[in-house]
Every structure is written in C-alpha cells, then in structure tokens.
Amino acid sequence: MQLTHYGDGSVKIEAKVELASRSTLGVGGSASHFAQVTSEAELTEALNWADAQKLDVRVLGGGSNIVVADAGFAGLVIEMALRGVRECADGTAVEVTAAAGEPWDGFVAAMISRGYQGLECLSGIPGRVGATPIQNVGAYGQEVSETITRVTAFDRASGERVNLRGAECRFSYRDSLFKSIEPDRFVVTEVCFRLHPNGAPALRYAELERWFDARPETPRTLAQVRETVIALRRAKSMVLDANDPNSRSCGSFFTNPILSRDAFDEFSARATGEGHVPNFPQADGRVKLSAGWLIERAGFARGTRAGSVGLSTQHALALIAHAGARAEDVLRFAQTVRRGVHSRFGVRLESEPVFWGFGAKSTLPDDDKP
Fold first, then answer.
1. Contact (CB, 8 A) for 43 and 13
2. I want to staple 325 with a disulfide (CB 3.0 to 4.6 A). Which of 45, 126, 308, 343 is the partner?
3. Are β-strands 279-281 and 138-139 bridged in parallel, bridged antiparallel, or unpaired?
4. In angstroms, rounded to a whole number, what is the distance separating the alpha carbons of residues 32 and 115?
5. Bridge partners (DSSP) listed for residue 186
6. Is 120 left (phi over 0), alpha (psi -120 to 50) or beta?
7. Cα–Cα distance, 83 to 89 (Å, whole number)
8. Would you say the C-alpha torsion 144, 145, 148, 152 has a positive or negative sign?
C-alpha cells in the first residue's frame, strides 16, 4: 500500500485502500486514494491535494449509507475522524456541538445520560454525527433538523470555513442543501444541536406510542424511550449486529415517496383492491406513502432473494448483501424492485444511500425502465 505525505502537515494519503470493510453493506472495490483526517487543518490539506490532482472527493463516516461500485472510486476518499463534544447553556436549553467524526449513537447515548431531550428517538442509528444533517436523519417521529441550530463546514467553493444556520441548510424529508442542492460543495466538520435538559421525550410515532400505551406501568423517560427504540429497531434487524444475517445492509434502501394530491389520487385508483393503504398527509398538502408497503404489495415479500442479494426477512426496506454479493448484484436487485413498484403503482422509489463510482450522479443509477 503506497503512502504519500502531502504538504507540511501530518495528513497521509494512501493508495488503493479497500472500501468494502468500511461499508455496512460490505461490497465494492477500492478508493484510488484515501486519507483519514483528525483536524480541520488535515482536512484542508487533503482537499487541497485532491484539487491539485484534479480528483473527485467523497467523505466517509461510518459507511452505513453508501454503495461502492465493484470498480471502486477513482478519487480521494476522506474518512472524517474529527472528535470532540462541547456544550454551553442557552437560557432553558443547552447548545451541544459535536465534531463530525463522533459516533452518532454514542453521542445520543451521552446526551440522554445527561438528561438532554431532543435526540432520543434517533437512538440505534449507525454512522457519525457529520452525516446526520446531510441526510436529515430521522426515525420514530424525530428528525435532526428539529434540533440543529448550526452546521460548520469547509466550503470548497470559497476555500473557507463557514457556519450555516439551521434554516440555511434547506432541510426537507431525508434531504438538505448538502445532499441534493449543492452536494459536492460543503464538507461538514461539526454540528450544533439545541437540546432541552429534563425535557419530556417525544412520543409522536404511532408504533412507539402503542408500545407505551400497552405498558402503562413503564415510565416514559428519555432512557426508556432510547431502550425501546433500539429494541424496535433490533426486531427489524435495523441495528448493526454481526450475528444477525439481515444486518449487512444500508438500513432503509428507499425513502418513503411523497406525492402531490393529484398523484396520490392517481395512485389510489391503481391501488384499488389493496385494502387499507398507509398514507400520511403532510402540512403542504402532499401525501407520504410507505415504501415498505409498496414493495411488499408489488410482489416482493420480505426475504425475497435474487442470488446473493435480497430483502431482509424482517423489513422490506432493507436490501441485504449475502455472502458473495457484489455491488452490481445490489444495483440490479434494487432496480428490479423499483421497476416492480412503478409497474404496479406508478410510483417511482428514490434511493436513500449514496452511490460511489457509478458515474456522475450519486443516486441509484437508472436502467432502461423506471
């Protein structure tokens, strides 16, 4: 493995570093160049080196939301390893700033142990803090956009460190400025969250509410909500566990589609005969559908397999890479599922993980059909 020292700093650029073991999906080739950065100075050096070499750059966190091509990625992969957490009181709330390389679930656990409300339903999610604003990570009725007040990032356009307020991040459902509006411009270095000491936990997700309603004797504390969310995720194989054959995945592979009212009416006409259709009206008049429900009703039962790739036996939204799987197998199966849902319901599913090395776009590549 070739090792290069760049500039006067300490950043090391390695050549031909495999990525499969750094991804929860466990497929894909190598990065042509790879650097782990532990400071903003090292990050700047690495980015400047990539610019000088005219290389594309991808940022790696916990590897829980990427699909790497079998040919690998012909550019520089930067592993974000900046660590540190600091906090300051702000009236009745507390502002907590975490470096991008902090493990997300460890950070959530630490906040709950201090009695800080605002992240409890986001327990058990793999990855690192820096990825959460990019995806506007959400689960069980919470999204990080509810608590993020500032994102600090390196702006590759200006070459400067910038602070973006929550509103400037353009958050929407599983999306943000960083993901789809200007996807290659900013590298997140730290995220600031506004949390509430001794606040009541958020219980607004039906499945979570039902769990507590069935156990009236169970205290509705932050710690209990965290424990319950992790148990619910584990039952769906949505917690990383080497002993669980369903856990070699990216988590949810598709986002829940959100339709205009007209598109929803057209969908409803095609869904006649399916009984109750889960749907969730949005504040802007659109309607969110359940991607998992669509997948199963389109004929892809949980556990469906095509060779070494298939659906989780516990959750239709998770695509599993079994032994021997290649990225091309994952791609082919995902496209088959998307075509099937479109053929049955006229709804196009959008991928949640990002794709490295498949071309210019970072979403699920199109095939010859929707």
1. no
2. 308
3. unpaired
4. 44
5. 155
6. alpha
7. 21
8. positive
Q: Quick check: 368 pLDDT over 70? A: no
- 45, 120, 143, 352: which is the annotated catalytic residue? 352
Pick the catalytic residue: 176, 252, 351, 362? 252
User: Got the DSSP string for 123-138?
Assistant: TT--SBGGGHHHHT-E
Over residues 219-245, the pLDDT tens digits come to: 999 999 999 999 999 999 998 888 898
Task: Convert the pLDDT of each residue in 18-58 to its tens digit.
Answer: 999 999 999 999 999 999 999 999 999 999 999 999 999 99
Q: Are 13 and 6 in contact (CB under 8 A)?
A: yes
Contacts of 61 (CB under 8 A, 6+ apart): 79, 80, 100, 101, 127, 128, 130, 131
352 a catalytic residue: yes
pLDDT number for residue 359: 83
Residue 127: name the closest of 292, 238, 224 by CA: 238
Q: Which two tokens stand for residue 101?
A: 């390389």
Helix (H, G, I), strand (E, B) or coil at 142: strand
Say if residue 266's pLDDT is above 70.
Answer: yes
Joined together, the tokens standing for residue 149 give 């007040």
In the annotation, is 286 catalytic? no
Q: Choose, from 128, 150, 174, 226, the residue flagged as catalytic.
A: 174
Sheet containing strand 287-289, strands side by side: 258-259, 287-289, 279-281
Return the sign of the alpha-carbon dihedral for residues 213, 238, 78, 85.
positive
Active site residue 58: no
Asked if the model's pLDDT at residue 259 lies above 70, the reply is: yes
